[in-house]
Structures are given as C-alpha cells and as structure tokens.
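Hi R.,

Here's the chain you asked about this morning:
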Amino acid sequence: MGFHVKGDQLVSAVPAEGSHELTIPKGICTIRPGAFDECPDLEVLHLPITMSISARPVLAACRRLRWVDIPPGHLYYLTAGGCLYFKQNHQLVFVPPGRESLEILPGTSLILDRAAATCSLLRSLTLPEGCLSVGLYAFSACTGLTELHLPETLRNINNGAFSGCTSLRTIRLPSRIQTIGADAFAECGALDVSVPMSCVSIGRNAFDAGTTLHFDCPEGCFTCTITGSWDLDGDGRPLLSFLHASDPAERMPYFDGFYKDPIAQKLGFFLRGHGDSGWYDALLQEKADELARLAAVAGDPGFFCDVIAHGGISADVTEQLLNDTLNKPEYYMPLLRYKQEQGQYHAEDSLRL
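And the predicted structure, written out as tokens:
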C-alpha cells in the first residue's frame, strides 16, 4: 500500500496487494482526479476527519466502491450505512456506486445533486418520510432500479433526477408533488404514471414517448399517452405536448387549475405550433366537434377561428354553433364561411344575416 501526497492533496493511492480496502491518512483534505486509477477493485474507503466534500466526484469513479465512512467528529459530514451525509438536515451527499441496497437515513430532507448517480446495482429505492426534494441527476443511470417508493412529503423532483433508470416501469407520484423537472424520467422507457392535481409544473421531456399519464381531477381522471416530443409555451413555462388525449372537451377545464392558465391557452396549447407535424390535423379530425364547442365558450375568437379553419366539424355541430353565436359576429361569420367552403350553405343561411 502506498500514497503519493502533495501538500494536503492525495495525488494517487495504491492499496495493499489483494486488498479491497483503503484508509486515507489524516491531514488529507482533497483528492485529485485520477487518484484511484490504480484501485479498480476498491470496495471500502475510510476518509480522514480532515477530508472535504470535493472528494465526491472522484469517489463516483470507483465503480465497485460500496462503503465510505468518516470519523464521527467531522465538522460538516457524517456517514451512515456506508453513505455520506451533510450533518445539517441529514442531506444525502454521496452513495457509493457499488451499493446493491440503500437505506437512507431517517429524517433526510434533501437528496443532493448526483448523490447516487450511476448506482447501477441498486434494485429498490425508498425515500424516507420528510424528504422534500430530489436533486439534479441524483439517481440518474441507476439502470437496475425496478422499484421506486416516494414519500408523501416529497415536493420537487429536479431535472434528470431519475433519467436513465431503464428498468423502471411504474411510478406513483406523491399526492402533494409540485414540480417535475426537465428529463426527470427521460430514458426510462414507457412508464405508467399517475399525476396528482397538486403538480403545477412538468418540465421538457420529463417522460419518454409511450408513457401513459393519468391526471387526477375532481370528477375522474384525464388520461393521455405521449407519442412525441415535449415543448414549452411562448412564455417559457414547461408544458406537456401530447399527440393524443382522451375526452378533451370534458377534461380540459381541469387543466385550468392544473397549470394556472386560462382555458383558452390550454386549448391553444394542444394545437398551436404543431401545424407542420401532421398531429394538428389528426387531433382535429378526431376531436373537432368537441374542440369547436369548447372553443366557442372559451372567450378566444382567434382560437375558435383556428379550429374552424382546419375543418372536420360536422354539419350538426356547425348548425348548433351558428345558433349559439348568432349575435357574435366574431364567431358567426367564420362559421358561415366554413359552411360555404364545405358546400353546406343553404338559402336559409342568407336569411340569418
């Protein structure tokens, strides 16, 4: 066993022949990148009381490392179950990438950025009650993870938190979750996810195509399946970009509360910006009558005209809307023009004018 030390930095380390354990000498504060290149089989690492947290990125490169500890008198950090924590609020700092199981310290409030990234041997993960937030890419590339249990206290899942967890199939989000960051579950494949009404923000590409999302709402559940990419609205707020959604006329009003936006913006979101994708027309063909009815009462003539212009509205619904909008020229005239274009215009229509 030998160490190459420069000042208070560990430049390189070589464990004793046949040993998978290493104790870093007292006085070392930081570890240089590449210091463990000669330790491919390192499994247990004892850090000195002088060590700073800057060691974490270097330790993450030790793919077989399964246990880290630090003396109990350290000013800022503690270890429990082979993992490294901030003493304040028991914030999880680092999980050795060779861990096959993980029991997070009760009372842990935050999972810090990249704390358990690339822990590919983990099969099951339960975050403790009291945990509020999962940091950036905290559990990314945990490819063996099949079970994920999130506490009711959890409010935020940050960008990329579970990206690349390719073995996940079902996720139950806590009933009071508020935000799901961009790429949070990217590269996880087609999931089945229930999203509570407490959630007010879902970031770009948070889920992969094929994922089925079930949105709780006061009178049931609005379900949609993602079959394309995600987008942002004009103000840069994160929004879903579905290529299919069931019963929009019945369920869309609940998106008003879900995203804190006017209903007309929600309707417009389904269509705006997708005119060249082929999806725009496909949705109108399937839901044109329902969208037209809802657009007529949404207080957005521009969106209403947009729906009418793309066609697909049945003659019966066109007639009903004409009667409903008789004294609203901003709605009425586009409908008359639509009847003319579709060859549905009759002599009695002239009497209306």
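The mean pLDDT is 76.

Let me know if you need anything else.
M.
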